[in-house]
Amino acid sequence: MAGSPDHEQEDGGPQNTIIRLQSYLHGGTSSLLSTLPTVFVFPVYKTIFRQQIHNAPVHQAVGQLYKEGPLKLYRGVAPPLLMRTLNGTLLFGLQDTLLRHLSLSTTTSAAALPALAGFGAGVVEAVVFTPFERVQNVLQNGHNDKHLPSLRSVLMKLKVERISQGYYRAFLPIAARNAFGSSLYFGLKGPVCAVVAGQGLSPVVSSFVSGTVTSMVISLTLYPLSVLVANMQAQVGGEVKGVTACWRQLWKSRNHSLVLLYRGGSLVILRSCITWGITTAIYDRQQKGSS
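-> structure tokens emitted (291 positions)
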């Protein structure tokens, strides 16, 4: 299992290389399989996005989507499908690579290494995938439909913007969210899985529960950053504010209320728990099968 100190005890030879392509392959496969349900639940995800942007109750968000019609319901679905698959490939593979480097070159406690490797993988993940998230958020904002009607028009518009205002808008909060989220995931999933397995459950069920519980902790902790990112990235052009100013504006728009800030959060947490539970179970099963 990636994120386990067992890496230090593997036999030498060609198979004990620093970069193991199977970790990347297993990460991509598990993420792809767990992402297929996204096609069916994308309208729910889009409803959550509208709640994050417009601070609207669920019935108003659903009303917006109904008014726009079925043809636009799946506008913006391609980036998350592609991003999720590539994300899993990079995240699991890179974390495994960094973990092996750290195991050989540092005296840090072995228990802390999975989380540390996850932190580094999360930073790289943010560098690679911020443009995908930016395009996705622009496409999902119904206010952009008239002047940015297609994916091509969005790409062309972002291309002429300064990189910090175009494709890499909101990079700092994304980097913080991904780095801490990945650190928590890889740091917690092993211990949680061991505790669950100690109750007599099968390895697959233990991995699923581990991914679910870990994802719940991450989602509850970092959801406000996702709301901030969505609000920063949804618009193109106009006045560009920094992270602090955007956070103040967001907090003010939610009437300084955590309840309103977490609007739509229950659906995000449910979706994330199911997705990461499936991803963890499939990945761990593949890793054990190839060891």
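Residues 89 and 259 are 35 Å apart (CA to CA).
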